[in-house]
UniProtKB/TrEMBL annotation:
GO cellular component terms attached to this protein's record: endoplasmic reticulum membrane; lipid droplet
InterPro entries linked to this entry: 3Beta_OHSteriod_DH/Estase (IPR002225), NAD(P)-bd_dom_sf (IPR036291), NAD(P)_dehydrat-like (IPR050425)
Positions of transmembrane segments: 334-354
The protein's name in its UniProt record: 3 beta-hydroxysteroid dehydrogenase type 7
Pathway the protein acts in: Lipid metabolism; steroid biosynthesis; Steroid biosynthesis
Major subcellular site: endoplasmic reticulum
Organism: Phocoena sinus
Length: 414
């Protein structure tokens, strides 16, 4: 079978930036009941693997928005798990509740930029899922720090695998490795092979592109013991779901504005979104299948996708915020684009002027405006063809879970 992943490879140049620049299918439609039913009615091969809890997994960034879902998904869906190591700069208190289960949960407070800390955490792990990263498109951190965490941190993870003999590495990349690009060209329902000029200037996509390249190039390197490293990269589009900070920010902004949000982006601009539970599920499946399908999957990239509808960023958010009492005002943008661009530029100036006094990092800046205002959607089945991925959560379930979570945020704010 030929290799895939030529077109929207995301290996295009960073024109600026730092320095320049044995699948267990889910029981469909049963949601959280799946694992319980699998215990009651084990599938062929299941009893064997349940008895052989032998694998050690490491999740970097395991206390982040996505990382927490990956951690919980592994505990629910990976019967071979013996020990789960969670490595993060900031450990969450919720980790305590996981420590009473059958799998040994080891919380490691550490920094991916510190090679020795990473090597100590990786040593003895069979699989590393590297989700840790600095997600900053608002100018909160310097480009150098973003580069250090996202690129050097990833380099440290790769070297730790090589030095300690860990063979399987799953990297959380991003749609941003591909685009939208600086020209604002649309990427309409594209797949991993769709040609697209992946050229970026912003430190975040630059860092993700460089890190992804490192991960893919490391595929096949000999690790301690002489066996080859098998790597692959997952590219989520905009992730939503329980714990999504930006959704929370929009919700609070709407409350402050008397239950209203004002349309800024034309409804015709599609923005790709994927439910966090499905992104986590895809990570778990890839981690499981990398060993058995190394020749096919090694060095590959996969977009993370599910059945979430294609909509504009704001209309999509309203799927959750609407049932929580917010209203999106306007069928068309209330302000002309040039004025939004002006306000976005003004925000950059204010951020710079205020930096000595305080951190001013609003949602609107020229980069986020360009992101929201450029069509970027994915339509692919590569993950299904390569490792049997089907979304674990339907759109209805993803929506319901997210709405419940926003409602709980509201409850806790009162
Ligand atoms: N949120 C989104 O829409 C998307 C996120 N991604 C990628 O998914 C991954 C996870 O993102 P989120 O969960 O949204 O972000 P997050 O900020 O919630 O989680 C990142 C985690 O990494 C940890 N971390 C940061 N710097 C670290 C360091 N130096 N050492 C150790 N841990 C460190 C943070 O403490 C945090 O727990 C990132 O790699 C991001 O680039 C990709 C596509 C979309
Ligand atoms: C007020 C504006 C007009 C609207 C601002 C919306 C923006 C804050 C968000 C629009 C698109 C988002 C990004 C996109 O979903 C892709 C991403 C991928 C990642 O890897 C990290 C997160 C993000 C950059 C995401 C961030 C918020 C937006 C820019």
């Amino acid at each position: 079978m030929g290799r895939e992943g030529g077109g929207a490879s995301g290996r295009g140049p960073c024109v600026a930036g730092p320095g320049a620049c044995r699948r267990q299918p889910p029981v469909a439609g049963l949601g959280g009941l799946g694992p319980w039913l699998q215990c009651l009615f084990p599938q062929p091969g299941m009893a064997d693997s349940a008895q052989a809890q032998k694998l050690v997994y490491l999740v970097t960034g395991g206390c982040g928005f996505l990382g927490e879902h990956v951690v919980r998904m592994l505990l629910q869906q990976e019967p071979q798990l013996r020990e789960l190591r969670i490595f993060d700069l900031h450990l969450g208190p919720w980790l305590e509740e996981l420590k009473t289960g059958p799998v040994q949960v080891t919380a490691i407070q550490g920094d991916v930029t510190q090679a020795h800390e990473v090597a100590a955490a990786v040593a003895g792990a069979h699989v590393v899922i590297h989700t840790a990263g600095l997600v900053d498109v608002f100018g909160k951190t310097s480009p150098e720090t973003i580069h250090e965490v996202n690129v050097q941190g990833t380099r440290n993870v790769i070297e730790a695998c090589v030095q300690t003999g860990t063979r399987f590495l799953v990297y959380t990349s991003s749609m941003e490795v591909v685009g939208p690009n600086i020209k604002g060209q649309p990427f309409y329902r594209g797949n991993e092979n769709t040609p697209y000029e992946a050229v970026h200037r912003h430190p975040y996509p630059c860092s993700k592109a460089l890190a992804e390249q490192l991960v893919l190039e490391a595929n096949g390197r000999k690790v301690l013991g002489g066996l080859p490293l098998v790597t692959c990269a997952l590219r989520p589009t905009g992730i939503y779901g329980e714990g999504h900070q930006i959704m929370r920010d929009f919700y609070h902004q709407g409350l402050r504005l008397g239950g209203r949000l004002f349309r800024a982006i034309p409804a015709s601009v599609e923005h790709g979104r994927v439910y966090v539970g499905n992104v986590a599920w895809m990570h778990v499946l890839v981690a499981r299948e990398l060993e058995h399908r190394a020749a096919l999957m090694g060095g590959q990239v996969y977009f993370c996708y599910d059945n979430s509808p294609y909509k504009s960023y704001e209309d999509f958010n309203m799927e959750f915020l609407g049932p929580c009492g917010l209203r999106l005002v306007g069928t068309r943008p209330l302000l002309p684009y040039w004025l939004l661009l002006f306000l976005a530029a003004l925000n950059v100036l204010l951020q710079w002027l205020l930096r000595p006094l305080l951190l001013y990092a609003p949602l609107l800046n020229p980069y986020t405006l360009a992101m929201a205002n450029t069509t970027f959607t994915v339509s692919t089945d590569k993950a299904r063809r390569h490792f049997g991925y089907e979304p674990l959560f339907s759109w209805e379930e993803s929506r319901t879970r997210t709405i419940r979570w926003v409602q709980a945020v509201e409850g806790s704010a009162q």
